[in-house]
């Protein structure tokens, strides 16, 4: 194979591919191949085929950045028998034999072997097969883990919206923060407490965290600390974690004042018209997807931290209320004179998590 050009990039050595894909690159095509660029239009998607020219060996099986070790043909590892890389990019500008693109994860000086127009008809695969469904049943987070690996924040937000019910700025920020933490820690989740997410708010932000990390109240991997801060810490069982705190908390107010005014009237005051509610939903959707494009460092304070991770959820013998007969989760019973009762029957105080945060509800 002969190269048809080279990549011009500000990255002289490989870094996190998700970071590289946020930057622009230039494809400088050799003059003898320049006529082959005729017909390319700004805004279209291209597939760039290139050579991992600094890799001098290959590895058929080994660890990957996210998830379990696997064969090279089931990964995007650069250590491949023929050293080929393929990445879809967006064409931003065309100037003679130079193409300015966004989304390329190739370093400066990378030899370009080919460029192809991306076609949804030809390049997207219908995965709705019995085999795919069976694999998805065995590993239900396969699709999510792939989206995290590809840093496909838009699709993650689309899926998180199914859980949250609507698109809004803070569910978007939760998706962005969670995906970043999962990538940096190089972890995956099966909902078995192998990782935990410590959220410091019960706002929309938390739904983005739950969807992307797979840490939920139901699988005991979501820990809620009633601090009232838009922040999350994602950690492994040994306590190694990353905390992201929304430092640019005025990002919506400063950049989208109309949305802030609508929010105040429709949500805060509960005094908006149906037309204003519809306008807010449209603005929220716009803002949610636009926030995905912000460099994460402009939004969050990011820290590497060590935390005390709670022990795995204990398995104890359940109790039964002597009054109503209903089963009670172990540890939640009220014991009086050797008899077990539930909280409602005894009208005891209890903690409740609602829109106000964690509240102590008292009967006495």
From TrEMBL:
EC top class, as a word: oxidoreductase
UniProt GO molecular function: formylmethanofuran dehydrogenase activity
Keywords of this entry: Oxidoreductase, S-adenosyl-L-methionine
Record-listed E.C. numbers: 1.2.7.12
SUPFAM superfamilies attached to this UniProt entry: FwdE-like (SSF143555), YaeB-like (SSF118196)
Span of domain TsaA-like: 1-127
Superkingdom per UniProt: Bacteria
Record-stated family: Belongs to the tRNA methyltransferase O family.
Protein name: Formylmethanofuran dehydrogenase subunit E
Lineage of the species this protein comes from: Bacteria, Bacillati, Bacillota, Clostridia, Halanaerobiales
């Amino acid at each position: 194979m002969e190269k048809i050009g080279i990549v011009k990039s500000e990255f002289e050595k490989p870094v996190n591919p998700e970071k590289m894909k946020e930057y622009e690159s230039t494809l400088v095509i050799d003059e003898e191949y320049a006529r082959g660029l005729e017909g390319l239009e700004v805004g279209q998607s291209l597939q760039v085929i290139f050579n991992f020219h600094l890799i001098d060996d290959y590895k058929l099986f080994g660890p990957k950045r996210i998830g379990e070790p696997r064969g090279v043909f089931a990964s995007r590892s650069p250590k491949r028998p023929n050293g080929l890389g393929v990445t879809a990019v967006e064409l931003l500008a065309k100037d003679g034999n130079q193409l300015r693109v966004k989304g390329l994860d190739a370093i400066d000086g990378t030899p370009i072997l080919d460029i192809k127009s991306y076609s949804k008809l030809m390049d997207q695969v219908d995965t709705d097969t019995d085999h795919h469904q069976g694999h998805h049943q065995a590993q239900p987070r396969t699709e999510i883990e792939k989206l995290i690996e590809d840093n496909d924040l838009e699709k993650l937000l689309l899926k998180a919206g199914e859980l949250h019910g609507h698109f809004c700025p803070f569910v978007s920020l939760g998706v962005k923060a969670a995906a970043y933490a999962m990538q940096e820690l190089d972890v995956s989740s099966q909902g078995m407490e192998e990782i935990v997410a410590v959220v410091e708010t019960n706002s929309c932000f938390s739904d983005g965290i739950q969807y992307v990390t797979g840490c939920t109240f139901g699988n005991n991997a979501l820990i809620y600390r009633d601090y009232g801060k838009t922040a999350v810490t994602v950690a492994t069982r040994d306590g190694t974690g990353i905390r992201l705190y929304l430092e640019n908390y005025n990002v919506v107010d400063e950049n989208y004042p109309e949305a802030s005014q609508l929010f105040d009237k429709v949500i805060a005051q509960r005094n908006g018209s149906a037309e204003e509610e519809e306008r807010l939903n449209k603005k929220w959707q716009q803002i949610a997807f636009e926030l995905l494009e912000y460099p994460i460092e402009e939004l969050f304070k990011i820290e590497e931290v060590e935390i005390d991770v709670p022990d795995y959820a204990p398995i104890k013998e359940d109790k039964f209320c002597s009054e109503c007969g209903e089963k009670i989760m172990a540890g939640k019973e009220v014991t009086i004179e050797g008899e077990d009762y539930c909280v409602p029957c005894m009208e005891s105080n209890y903690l409740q998590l609602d829109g106000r945060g964690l509240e102590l509800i008292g009967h006495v």
